[in-house]
Design a protein that fits this description.
Blueprint: E1 9-13, H1 29-39, H2 45-66, H3 74-87, H4 95-116, E2 119-121, E3 126-128, H5 133-143, H6 146-153, E4 156-159, H7 165-176, E5 180-182, E6 193-198, E7 201-208, E8 214-216, H8 219-225, H9 250-253, H10 256-260, E9 268-272, H11 284-299, E10 302-306, H12 315-324, E11 333-337, H13 344-350, E12 359-363, H14 366-373, E13 385-386, E14 391-393
Parallel strand pairs: 1-4, 1-10, 4-6, 5-6, 10-11, 11-12, 12-14
Antiparallel strand pairs: 2-3, 7-8, 7-9, 13-14
Helix pairs in contact: 1-4, 2-4, 3-4, 5-6, 5-7, 11-12
The chain binds zinc ion (ZN).
Length: 396
């Protein structure tokens, strides 16, 4: 990594970065959701919502046979649901069911991720699974010496993922060093905290349907609740949705929402914002996250993009990146790590001539990206080759 006084690194993570925490990729999501559906007790809040989403999918099958909507790709499905809601027509669903569908989808996404990502308990704390690459990244920052620890303080993490694998790693690592993590939901970022900006929301944030406010379930309170998990338990699940006891959380007790809204558990839904959905009626908190992300991108000198394929359907990143680039400090690095080199074409398009010298596309998964980023100075000449499309291939 590039270390200097002015260093402001930004890491950007896509679905591929959470894969080894257990989170399904976009194209596997529906299958995984179906597995989760079969394990749910009937007539519970999650199971009713799964039923509705799978009814909607079933009724789209007719559409599917006549068009190019791929029902196993969650992004295509979400886009189709959104349009269906606008025109008020999704197969044989009633108007009421169509109205319920967006919230049901968010509950399905959340429950599927909750069930897919596993954590463990060591002697004292609930910790991310050792195999988590996020944990590996943060450990490497720590083991690489004090300059890297200082660099971590100035780093911004931006993610498109809803899961909490990075959140928990970062929370634990920062707490150990007496620092804080800030999700950027408020207008100002808390001084001397590391930013974790979740552009599409998070499964541990809830939104009130009455006032539209978003509340993160803070980690200290949440983990305190989990203290009865037996030591050395290896397959801990973090469930947020079943436990919306918001009164435990100080920020909620002091909020307008607590005083003015109905406060029923069912009135809170996970604050996740599917990529293809209409983004004009966002809560002020999510808008703050985006603003902070654009600010971080404007002041960043180095970008490391891991496990994000820049899908054609997601023009959002392109726009945010362009807006953030106005008045940007000199970009030293724009490095993309992806095991699938076909994503390079899409990244080529957003790199302008003025910063093309900073751009590298490296064919690598997360683990190899970490090794590449933290290699020693004398390893800089490490032999890597470039294929005919300019993709950097690392040695085995
Ligand atoms: Zn409210």
């Amino acid at each position: 990594m590039n270390i200097s006084e002015q260093s402001r690194p930004v890491f950007i993570f896509g679905a591929g970065a959470s894969a080894n925490c257990g989170a399904p990729l976009m194209k596997e999501f529906i299958d995984r959701a179906e597995d989760v559906k079969f394990q749910l007790a009937e007539n519970t809040r999650p199971s009713d919502n799964f039923d509705l989403v799978f009814d909607a999918l079933e009724s789209l099958k007719g559409v599917h046979s006549k068009s190019n909507v791929y029902l196993n790709n969650i992004e295509d499905v979400l886009g189709t649901f959104e349009i269906g809601r606008v025109i008020n027509k999704i197969g044989s669903l009633s108007k009421k069911e169509i109205e319920r569908l967006p919230d049901a989808t968010k509950i399905v996404i959340t429950k599927t991720l909750e069930d897919s990502c596993r954590f463990r308990r060591d002697n004292v704390h609930i910790v991310p699974n050792n195999e988590s690459d996020y944990h590996g990244l943060l450990n490497t920052f720590e083991s690489s010496g004090s300059t890297y620890i200082e660099l971590l303080k100035k780093t911004t993490f931006i993610t498109f993922n809803y899961d909490v694998c990075l959140d928990l790693s970062l929370y634990i690592k920062l707490k150990k060093n007496g620092w804080k993590m800030d999700y950027g939901l408020n207008e100002a970022i808390e001084h001397s905290s590391v930013k974790l900006l979740k552009l599409h929301g998070s499964i541990n944030w809830v939104v009130c349907r009455d006032c539209g406010r978003v509340f993160p379930l803070d980690w200290a309170t949440y983990l305190n609740d989990k203290k009865n998990v037996p030591p050395n338990e290896k397959k801990v699940r973090l469930n947020f949705m079943d436990l919306y006891h918001l009164d435990k959380y100080q920020f909620f007790r002091e909020s307008e929402c607590k005083r003015k809204c109905t406060g029923m558990v069912d009135n809170f839904i996970p604050a996740v914002v599917p990529p293809s959905w209409n983004k004009t009626d966002l809560s002020p908190e999510i808008k703050n996250v985006w603003r902070h992300a654009a600010d971080a991108m404007a002041s960043a000198d180095q970008f490391y993009i891991i496990g994000y394929s820049l899908p054609e359907t997601d023009s959002f990143f392109r726009m945010l990146f362009a807006l953030g680039s106005e008045g940007r400090a000199r970009m030293r690095r724009f490095w993309v790590f992806n095991p699938d080199s076909s994503a390079k074409n899409r990244f080529d398009k957003i790199v302008s001539e003025s910063n093309s010298s900073a751009y590298k596309f490296v064919k690598a998964d997360f683990q190899r990206a970490i090794r590449f980023l933290f290699r020693r100075e004398d390893e800089h000449s490490e032999k890597f080759t470039e294929d005919e499309n300019g993709v950097i291939i690392l040695p085995d």
